[in-house]
Write a structure and sequence with these properties.
Helix content is 30%, strand content 40%. The protein is α+β, with helices and mostly antiparallel strands.
């Protein structure tokens, strides 16, 4: 299974409806190239979260599983795709953590979020520098309200790049082997046909 990666999401907003304090924003936006350190440029394709929306996703604080703010299966976290990206809403719990986060967001002391994911389907363009990566299908494990939004673990980014280059080399090796095998088969068929033709000519003589 691919490594868990983290990305910065967009800024969050707070609204209050009927006493419920809800954080809302985009966990990710489509077709926006983003430089991942100096390793590659990444963008997310529309539809990449279609399966994610159906899954069990949690909203955490600072990626800490002990600080759960909402969950899709309970209905307190809602995810959906639109033409912009993956949008979310999370109803903050009436707990000290939920109230604190609501107040901190309201004061703009906290204004960012992040999400953790695994790439299920991706394509790479290694002809550019840095290479390009398109996430076509991703599995989100969680989104997080974060104190310090940060770009991803660069070691994970480097492993991703090294892995795709290794796959590309392996693909080239397989293509070369297949081409060589095809050439051998063509040569063998041609030799067999020439031998058959010589036999026919000899019989005719």
């Amino acid at each position: 299974m691919s490594e868990l990666e983290k990305r910065i999401a967009q800024q969050i907003e707070l609204r209050a409806d009927d006493g419920t304090r809800t954080l809302t924003g985009y966990a990710a936006k489509f077709n926006i190239p983003t430089g991942i350190a100096d390793y590659f440029v990444e963008q997310i394709a529309p539809g990449a979260f279609t399966e994610t929306i159906k899954g069990d996703v949690r909203c955490l604080f600072n990626h800490d599983s002990d600080n759960v703010l909402g969950r899709t299966t309970s209905g307190t976290l809602r995810l959906w795709e639109d033409e912009i990206g993956l949008r979310f809403e999370v109803d903050l719990p009436d707990t000290s953590l939920g109230r604190d986060i609501g107040k901190l967001v309201e004061r703009r002391d906290i204004s960012g979020c992040s999400f953790g994911f695994r790439a299920v389907k991706q394509t790479w363009d290694d002809t550019t520098h840095p290479p390009g990566r398109t996430l076509e299908k991703v599995e989100i494990s969680e989104i997080s309200i974060v104190t310090f939004p940060a770009y991803p673990d660069t070691s994970v980014g480097l492993r991703s790049l090294e892995a795709i280059r290794a796959e590309a080399r392996e693909d080239e090796r397989r293509k070369a082997e297949n081409a060589a095998a095809a050439a051998r088969r063509v040569a063998e068929k041609r030799a067999a046909m020439e031998q058959k033709i010589r036999g026919i000519r000899q019989d005719a003589a």
